[in-house]
């Protein structure tokens, strides 16, 4: 894996890159009022002193500010990206060098991430963020790994759980014929780990106080772990804070979907027929963005409630099959699998665009598409490929079917990440400082903290908040300072 | 109260009115696919056979179809409106006469409601729907009142609770100086009831299996009753079904707010500056409707999360005080009290319009406004009043500060009421047929029923629902037929 | 025609009606800042002193304010409506009684219009407004008719042209088998006129200085007259002032289309599939309004430029035939003929709604529909008819296929009519006071007047206009005070 | 100027660059159905055979397809960009190499343009496209320059007019103290030309049959030339084709404004307060795009008609001064000068963004900003500069105040450029093949050609056009095949 290390070292050595990243961080800090407010509120008290946080989340400029906020609150941090394409190298470099460091004397945080990792490299990076031996040595303490995880999609959490499971079993199972390429890479990594240190992940799991998880997909995995009785430590579901799911998922994608389409293809969205699979928060933001650009949007849904919302919002709701031949741009936003299948490609218009914003790359069945007889893949530019089909037409697939808003653009913008990451910081503080209040299970942040996150973002947008009078608070039976809604309120 | 009875009798006697109502019912049935589907599904099984339902809900054409659906499923029903202005007299007449009745031989359901009741008349009507003596006599049974309540705003439920409370106390408290006019009417009624039959409401309360409540306000009252340990029977919170709160509240008001403004004032909404107090579901629908007509919308909020939603949706968020002098149309949608106060009126533009869609008439402080020195009230037409202010300007207040979408228009349209009322019917069936599954408390309908309501409304809107494959259902860990979401999902 | 006169006399006698109209006029004056500003600017100078204006335009509250503005500027006026359904009786009554008159001693302006005229009554009214004998007698002068026409749709202008044509020919042609019912009524009227006074319309035509025409349809007729060399006096095309066509046509219909749909049917627009035939200004406003209510809108067009605009604005563009079975609400906005034909009705969904906003009633082929074998027409309420089709389904046709925004609602709101009518007033002043500047032909108002009309409406909407600096004016080569655009600028 | 030539030569030598450009051209051809349809229709007839076209227009991928379309129709072409930042180098390289050429044996069209020219380089390039000596030599003919100009902004036209003017005067005037830097560069160039060949531009002017001009600004210059009697050859105003001004200006900017903002700053647009100066077509598209992303938009206008449109479209209309302190993003779209002045910067929020989409760089007064005492300019990345102000705040100015949709993004997308460029091609054919029909002056394309351009773009967007029947055509008095509207129709 020497190539990888070299690539990373090279980046660290590149002060120009780090400087460019530092400029971007400085500008983005103005767009992340939530994180900056938390620094102002908590940096004296150092609530995360003693926290060793292993973070697996897209290594962007915004994440750089999250990392530096965690550090400002007292934490030690090691970081990897949670997606092979999403790293902004200048942000990674800037975090490693640190605000006051130099190439020769970096003073920042270890980051293991670069744009365009292979799967092997990706899992090597994920493995690295669990290796806290140098920190243990420096501290003269006896720990193996982190005591906190900050996760996005659950890969870091998965690695600990699987690692411990196989250590207890005493062996890693053989790779099966149906296993995905990625799972075979994980198994290989864990085989090496088991051989090298047969109790490593068991020790690591024992040290961890909890995980805070960013996304729907990762949260879903956590609920599954817990349902099966396999969850090893408490989790906070950051995704379902209102100020996360209803902001990052909806307003973030509203921004980054058209941004990614534009950077990838420069195709006019206006006047086009766009198909959005899924009308959850991500689908809602997608449809809104496309309509805002003058597209005609058709939505598909499996949930009758969301389908009814879509039609009441003015969208045609149809199955993919019934409209496929009229669609110019396909957007998958379901979090499910096999939404766009190989046979679909053959029915599409020439140069139809396929864009996945729904987390994993099996939403568009890339494996199946690769197996189409006679298909040819041409790189137009990085993350933009033309797939020539045997029928003489071609389609454009963005970011190899992975998250195109990260691969073709720069992900959610700073402001929405500030709402999302302020939740992460508060969740880390909760789990780390009040372990007794969070028993084994998957928790949602208290509504007061959710409202606090919102409050931290208002003045930057010029919002004047109305104050409840005592009479009014009494009339609706809530405290003057909130929380203002019942827990099941849907916003 | 002879005047009242006469008025009502006169209406019943008016076959022309009933015929007009019957026409409207027939047309509206096509717009209420949920209720009609429930009739088709359940009329053979008669799940509500034996149910005696006391209903207090705006007596509109849509409610007529709800009532006749309940009857089609086996129930006996007595009905009043829950608002003094909201009754459509032709709908009331048609329900009384019944689909196959005549004026001389009515075969319908007893209704106690007409447009423009006084407060005394209103509570007399509410009292009437608890008097099931004629039904008891006809059945040769020994009951006093209903065994089910279907409520909107909680007035029927309140009457039983207060009635029983005072019966147990042995006396009705004296009317206090601070008591509202309405509360003094209630106390007066209960004094008469106590005198006439000192255990009447105690017996009624004991017969009731449960209540299904329609609105935020009524649900809030129920939670308060339950918190104080005073709730007398289980309740289903219909308001918080997704297919109710996210449809009726949002899409209903989107329709009926501009409709009411137009019918009341014929004022161009486009180009105007509109102020919407509150950005809950009703406020969201209001803002959307006004923007859809080309207005500039300013929103006020006390909840930082909703405030952040408003600004992310592109609205200016400000306090009433800071923008009051620039606003043409004021809409209150908070469910709170004293949003628009007398002193505000004096700062408003000439002929500014005040429209309350937030449930009670204290959202606009009508009592206070009436007390402004030198104010003059001129009726432009029914439910539209010009209030001439001492400063020489005037403002228009719609529906006397009560729900203008009901008072100045015809309320939510049939289609959204179909989603809301299908929840009511299913909730009535649940509480009546499965009493053991609903302990004392406030319950939300199971998500499967919520999804069922949505499903019943799709084909009428031309929606093609996508079917999950088995693989996909397994992938996201849900049954192929749903429910598709975790309970805390916010839609 | 005694019935007619009686009906009208009754209305005039009804002071309650006139008082109600006066209230509405007073409120609407606040919404017509353009007309009120013209009164303030010109009432001292009396530029229309000596003008005898025959007006044919929907007799609404807004028109009442137009009439009273013309009078305030010195004119004498006689008025009829230009549509059999569009009169608001209270407005007509108020104009007749006048601001300071009484029933016994009316001091207003003669109006010949009421809601729900027959075709015979309609043309009788139109004939009346050309009879200025009482005014001539009162003035001791020798004129037959008006010296100015203010027209909407061109019926008044048509009557003069046809009347004179037949007088010159010496006879009125026999009614042909293909002549419409309406044309046969006109011929009948002119036969009577010719018999009674064989040079009446020839004398009237000779007295007229010019006509100002309100609508696309009427303007089209004028251009046709002029192209054939038949135009008898100069015309100002008010319709094509930007502040008319781009405001009244677009923003007026955005208001009054959903208003009419709501008042007629109370049907939820949200979630429905709506078809808008024609994407001119009226179609653009219609589509915008329907989308603003959450409908899915499909547009049809014959002009490729307008079709391209529609698709770029995000609408599906399709032929009626290809989508007819999926549509809930049909809106015709073409100004053309036979858009919806009898055979179309048989393909429509049950209770589909048909709404014409495109001027004449042949846009929906009512004559053809009446001839469908076995069709049955049921009046749901005035101007709302259910047509039961032989296939068992029914459709709802609003306002008998005539302008439903006038027939089912109250037409364009005051504010947009203020822009439109301010153009009318300025056009009347131009033609009456500067006859030498307007040779025989069809003219558009100078851009300075168009901009003046806009300027008169800004402060009421809180607009702050930016002032050009001298440098900036020089830079773009326009006067600091305007006009700011080249004549062919499209806005 | 050897550096320039070298830079260009280098690019030509770079086959990788040309290949990348060729890929993009191939993909973009699918998005330019108008140009491809014109190739299909006219390539056999070769209507531009003999045309020598000097083109000055942003050298993008879309322009490459325009150039190759002109060549396909028989023309010879020389090309420069009309903006120092707007060239896409790979597109330039691909055009030079040609579809079938190689680096060693290029077979394309001479292009003089690269991204990031100095002013000297820019005007050197513009001079080069008038030097047709090698073509004359190759043809054995005796001409000096082009016989057609295709212009954008009028720089090529200006050079010929000024060159001839000074040749007739016999000298180039001295550079004045108030002359802009750019004008001094032009004067310098013309001094050298005059010295070298004192009749060069006079001969060139004599050979030119006409110019077709792309933009508002260039058209304005042409009308000014013509008004002063200085115009040297007929011009077609392509900008004012409906399918140009109402598409490129409006829908193009709707796409490229947010695209440029995103690429430049990655700042969330949603929730922000955006100020759009000017509500012409570009301003309308800008406001629409920003609202579509969830921004609150405030518009400024000097024209009362456009101001009234803005407020009727739901935007606050205010002066810059009254809202400057609340604005996050400033967009100038006026085509005028000195909209944002140095003193304004000092009132802006920290990190406010300034984006000009209004043609010239004096819309934001860059010269004045450069002179602010103590201001500091930091390059964040190419075309994105932070200007640190003496008050401790900073602002971001995009593309040095020039067109940011070109400098920070890739300009209008292919599809809208296809409508615009199809007009250019038809205009070139008109002027070149029918010189007798276009006398000296500024002409607009016949409406039939405008409609033709629209028609060529419909099927790509799935539009079904409705066909007029003969009866309908007769009814509205137009030919079945169009044109469908009067000339003054505004769309």
TrEMBL record, chains A, B, C, D:
Keywords: Cytoplasm, Hydrolase, NAD, One-carbon metabolism. GO terms for biological process: L-homocysteine biosynthetic process; one-carbon metabolic process; S-adenosylmethionine cycle. SMART domains: AdoHcyase (SM00996), AdoHcyase_NAD (SM00997). It is found in: Cytoplasm. It catalyses: S-adenosyl-L-homocysteine + H2O = L-homocysteine + adenosine. Gene3D superfamilies: Adenosylhomocysteinase-like, NAD(P)-binding Rossmann-like Domain. Its main location: cytoplasm. One of its GO terms (molecular function) is adenosylhomocysteinase activity. Residues 249-411 form the S-adenosyl-L-homocysteine hydrolase NAD binding domain. It comes from the Bacteria. Belongs to the adenosylhomocysteinase family. PANTHER family: ADENOSYLHOMOCYSTEINASE. This is Adenosylhomocysteinase. It comes from Rhodoluna lacicola.
